[in-house]
Amino acid sequence: MSKRSARESRGSRAAAWTAVVILGGFGLLPVYWMLATAFTPAQETFRYPPSFVPTELTLENFTRLADEPDLARYLVNSLVVSIVTAVLSVIVSAYMGYAFSKFRFRGRRSLMYFVLSSQMFPQALLLVTLYALFSAYHLLDTYTALVLSFTTFTLPLCVWMLKGFFDTIPDTLVEAARVDGASRLRTIHSVILPLSAPGLIAAGLFAFVRGWNDFIFALTLAGREKTTLPPGLVNAFLGEATAQWAELMAASLLASLPVVVAFIALQRFLVGGITAGAIKG
Amino acid sequence: MSTKTARPGTTGRVPASRPAGDRPPRRLGDGAFAALLMLPGLAMLAAIVVYPLVASMVTAFFEQSLVEPGRRFVGLQNITELLGGDFWRLLWQTLVFTVGATIAPFLVGLALALALNTRIRGRAALRGLLLIPWLVPSVVVSFLWMWIFNANYGLANGALEALGLIDSPQAWLAGSGTAMTAVIVAKTWASFPWIMVMLLAGLQTVPVELHEAAETDGAGAVQRFFAVTLPHLRGIIGIVLLLEQIWNFQHFDLIYVMTGGGPAGATETFATAVYETAFQGFDLGRAGALGLLWMVLLLVMVAIYVRRSEREGQL
Asked: Which residue range or ranges hold the ABC transmembrane type-1 domain (chain B) (predicted)?
């Protein structure tokens, strides 16, 4: 206890509290405002000055969302595209990440930089040609176009995450499998990948979240049939003269839920999984 | 566009390093095996990243429409037209957004990281809750701040008027003087949690003994921050700022949804300008030319980032 007060004077603790109250408020008040608006009767939101505490709580904004027939389709599209993107990215990047982690070959570093930097270039520019490309193959407004375009940012992400994960698996495990007579491919499939389940799941969840949050690719490459929630919500709500803010906040809440849930799951895997897997295996 | 552009030969040329008699003769060398493992990923990146980026920049030298077939070579005309016109305004506005949306969340993230690195109560819960702004989709961030900055019923007007900071409700997103600031505030809200988490991770590596030694020598909290904490965080701060800068330099979602580049182009950046030129103006030549100039600037930033990460041992 004396050590604590020695290192953290009263003054610095007061400063810490001030920062937490003001900046934490900046971080959390908007979240509260989204929640409060989503549960406020729509007509109450058209009032100035706004009431900071809801005068009345209701679920009507959520039930009214059910009447919008397109939203359910956008939701399904978002789920399908994000899940397929995540699975595809993890499969492809597992092999690539493994090659980067466990093999030493000429050009390895350059290739790693290439993969790292490939996610840093502007999507708007990428789209100029991707649009023409998918159009030429009649892939506009298809799941294929969305999955492929999402892969442009999930693949580099997964490769780097999994490379980092494989680095934590001791080379002696690979060597032991070789001594036991396993082929290199078999070593990957029967030894490395089962051990890496936490890493694969974490990478997949990250890819899912990134895909779920995409806006620009779905906006451009998908039409009304296959578009995902983000562009779908923009089209459904922002085109009107007076936006239905209460309903929009309810929809925003629902659109945010999967990523928050995914992240809670992810956190557990990241904390518990990374080192434990290799040792126990 | 074919998969052949996936840098063949960079990996396959390494001969098998083990003695030949050690294994069956038809077995691939390690280099070739690694190349096979990487082939699907590299082929995809070549087809959907490298080829489209290069092809988009090549359109800079053509007169070409999104909706009509065919194109005509015009040399540097698109580029010189831009350099004699819109380019500088877009560069300035992109830089204002980039600097604002990098520095502001950095300061917020740093202050919160320092505060949450002390033993104040509830810090674990706060660390978790404060991640929410970073997790929610960018479109949701846009909606939320459009609602907060709403001219008629918005929370920002209500709060600022109650505090006596403004006399009457403002149309934040429709005013050419305030729209950019409003978008930067929204981006700051979405970005600070990631910076906070990165800096918190960095703070855990600062040795306690150093702080204690500095304190014994009579250094106050502020002095210790500049003499001990900050030098320790230098590497991670550099990485965080560079990455944020690269991301903000090409940020699209918040600007496009919140203002659409308006009012009167006041929040237009390279990202929204390239997008609108290509997909609303159908002018691929001009979009490509803008994109080419944009990419050159971005390449410099990415090169600095890669070199710096290498030095910091992050790669």
From this structure: 91-305
State which residues form the domain around B157: 81-311
Check B148 against A115: CB less than 8 A apart. no
Residue B1 has pLDDT above 50, yes or no: no
- How far CA B248 is from CA of A184, B15, B178, in Å, comes to 42, 44, 19
Domain residue spans of chain A? 2-61, 64-280
Contacting residues of A for B116, CB less than 8 Å apart: 16, 20
Confidence bin at B236 (pLDDT 50/70/90): confident
* Nearest beta carbon to residue A159 from set B41, B158, B189: B41
Report chain A residues whose CB lies below 8 A from the CB of B155. 33, 50, 52
Structural domain total, chain B: 1
Q: CATH number of the domain at A64-280, please?
A: 1.10.3720.10
Query: Measured between alpha carbons, how far is A215 from B252 in angstroms, rounded to an integer?
Result: 9
Q: Per the CB < 8 Å rule, is A26 touching B189?
A: yes
Please give the model's pTM, rounded to 2 decimal places. Answer: 0.88
How close, in Å, is residue B177 to chain A by CA atoms? Answer: 22
CA distance A65 to A147: 27
How many whole angstroms separate alpha carbon B21 and alpha carbon B209?
56
Q: Quick check: is B70 in a domain?
A: no
**Residue A253 to chain B, least CA–CA distance (Å):** 8
The reply to whether B22 falls in a domain is no
Q: Cβ B37–A128 below 8 Å, yes or no? A: no
For residue B10, is it within any domain?
Answer: no
Output the pLDDT for position A242: 64
Per-residue model confidence (pLDDT) at position A206 = 86
- Residue B145: which CATH number? 1.10.3720.10
Write down the pLDDT at residue A269: 61
Residue B157 lies in a domain: yes
In contact, B140 and A259? CB cutoff 8 Å: no
User: How far apart are the CA of B115 and the nearest CA of chain A, in angstroms?
Assistant: 4
Return the closest-CA partner of residue B138 out of A59, A153, A52.
Answer: A153
Q: Which residues of chain A have pLDDT under 50?
A: 1-6, 271-281
Mean pLDDT of B128-134: 89
Cis amide linkage into residue B19, ω under 30° from 0: no
Separation between Cα atoms, residue B275 and residue A162, nearest integer Å: 33
Q: Residue B127 pLDDT > 80, yes or no?
A: yes
Where residue B204 falls among pLDDT bands split at 50, 70, 90?
A: confident
Q: Write down the pLDDT at residue A280.
A: 26
Spacing of C-alpha B63 from chain mean position: 30
Nearest CB to A116 within list B114, B294, B306: B306
Tens digit of pLDDT for each residue in B90-107?
A: 999 999 999 999 999 999
Q: What part of B 205-264 touches A (C-beta under 8 Å)?
A: 208, 211-212, 215, 221, 246, 250, 252-253, 256-257
